[in-house]
């Protein structure tokens, strides 16, 4: 039996490689051409969508889809050059089998990618909206394929995976140009309710950050331990800054207006009794009222 030396084996493989080299070079050139087309296609898709829609997130989505499609076509073209007998059905079958393993390995990435596409298409919120999601609140800075970035009100950037956003309830604070706020206060039981209601209404209507329409509502909501309680409903611009500024103005204006009208804003009292345990025979006790 003839023996095969290591040099013969290496010579055989080197000859096979040299025979395949022109084919590999052509396949690499074809794949490189498609990669260049993918870059040009991404830019072209962004420009086309940009002419129709003034939304940077949708423009980015169109560019990404065009780039991915051209890259996949390039892979198919290069594979058919290297393996001439390979048909499209065979490639689909191979990709189908491999996609199962890839799907398990990159499940979270695919979930975020799909959720990002759905968010960009459905547009429950856009860049610049102020939202609350998953305990985070802030202004949306960017919506990418994999994640959404929002700037919190204390200046910190928060990056949230798109799958978390898509499966959570999202409150869009700026979906409408204005929103309603509520402020609560109370007056003493000895005060005139109608007079206090009118004083409070005029005070709130005089606040610069409170909108003229819809009108301010001052409603009695209950009888507390030491006060008749009011809820004041007023409308402001939907931006967080406007809401916070209005609350400061409303609280200040109501306090000064009630003081000027000599209407008491009560605070609760507690009764504290002091017992002298050293004098068991005596039933004398001392009682005093102190603010709670």
Please tell me about this protein's structure.
This protein has 292 residues and is an alpha+beta fold. The chain has three domains: 8-86, no CATH class; 129-172, SH3 type barrels; 178-261, Alpha-Beta Plaits. 50% of the residues lie in helices and 23% in strands. It has helices spanning 6-52, 56-82, 88-105, 107-122, 162-166, 193-205, 240-260; strands at 130-133, 136-143, 147-152, 157-161, 170-172, 178-187, 217-223, 228-237, 269-275, 285-291. The strands form three sheets. The protein has a five-stranded antiparallel beta sheet with strand order 4-3-2-1-5. Strands 6-8-7 form a three-stranded antiparallel beta sheet. The chain has a two-stranded antiparallel sheet with strand order 9-10. Strand 7 (217-223) and strand 8 (228-237) form a beta hairpin. Helix 6 (193-205) crosses helix 7 (240-260). It is elongated, with a radius of gyration of 36 Å. The model has no long low-confidence stretch (mean pLDDT 81).
